[in-house]
Amino acid sequence: MSLDKIRPLFTATLATLDKQATRKGSERVLVAIIPAQSGLGPRCLLAGYGERAFLRMNSNSYLGLSQHPAVLWAAEEAARRFGAGPGAVRFISGTCLAHTELEEKLARFHGRGAGMLMSSAYATVMGALPRLVTEETVVISDALNHNCIINGIRLAQPAAKAIYRHLDLEDLAARLEEFRGKARRAVVVTDGVFSMRGDHAPLADLSALCSRFENDFPEGVITMADDSHGVGAFGQSGRGTEEHTHGRVDVLIGTLGKGFGVNGGYVVGDALFIDYLRETTPFYIYSNPITPAEAAAAGKALDIVDSGEGSLLLKKLRTLRTFLADGLHALGYESIAGAHPIVPLLVRDTAKTASLAAHLFNHGILATGLNYPVVPKGDEEIRFQLNAGHTQQDIEFLLKALQSFREHTEPKDKIPLTP
Fold this sequence. Notes:
Layout: H1 7-20, E1 30-34, E2 43-46, E3 53-56, H2 69-82, H3 90-94, H4 97-109, E4 114-118, H5 121-128, E5 137-142, H6 147-156, E6 160-164, H7 169-178, E7 185-191, H8 203-212, E8 221-226, H9 241-245, E9 251-255, E10 265-269, H10 271-280, H11 282-285, H12 292-305, H13 308-331, E11 334-335, E12 342-346, H14 350-362, E13 365-366, E14 368-370, E15 381-385, H15 392-407
Parallel strand pairs: 3-13, 5-6, 5-7, 7-8, 8-9
Antiparallel strand pairs: 1-2, 2-3, 4-10, 9-10, 11-12, 12-15, 14-15
Helix pairs in contact: 2-12, 4-12, 5-6, 13-15
């Protein structure tokens, strides 16, 4: 057999993406990172662009720990000690000391009974969420939840699923009321920080609301949050949306690949639940773990976050966020108020988003344009992601490029002004 008979389908799909201006196209290849110098943060070099340096405004490494010497040393030492890869899945012979130490650290960091590592946060959601769902369960999800949650619900095949309006707890209450007496269990799932917007779920109020309905479902109401963009970057000490909102969910999922600057995902919660996951989720049982080097590096990154140095990095990140948000407002650009280092510039038009992203690239700035269906129609944006390696001069450089875009754009093509 061959793919010949269905090649026209591939071609048609790609042509549609081109027409909609939503095709991602070729990936830019990072070939080197130039260390910070002369008051500027790190710059990166791309394949095909010679020695031309770019300011990176689209990295998830919010604290810049992916380049931290102590994190790099931890990875190197573990690789020499355990090898480049784990060599097996966890239950065969793939569990190294670096894995178990990191799981214990993560559980303590989040004040939970136990933690479990997986290959990515996406895999963690896909692995954990279905294990909470039966054929008599309703899953209730925020309208703007990440793709991993959407696909996790599909994989779980609950008795019913419902969507509540973004951050609208009254609508969530209505959905819980709707399924009272119709399901034995409810699972309410949300992002902690919403990756496209930088806003966050009100976890304290959400958990309090769900507790009001606890006795209306024979198997209770379980709360789950994927706080991948929150942990290590949000909250006074980097403990994420729970810390920022003074809330707590039953099952918390995080990543090692953003605020901690490494790779991999994890879940923390009740120790019995974590034991249950280890024995039942195929995403853990049948997949290799992150490498020992990654686990050791993440452990060192966690130590840094949970220290005086981490507090200073988080404080700097908050200062830079305020500086950029104020600069966007002064230039007349529309954004979303918040405290997270994701700072969206709302463009609300696909073609204009592409034009602005290209303008920034031509001025030596890497920034991600987000269009439908990644974001809802009308919410097209440029997503800026700050990290603690940036400097005020970097942000001034970005704002100057944004100012030049507005000055060289005809009025009818300008980005909407802030209401």
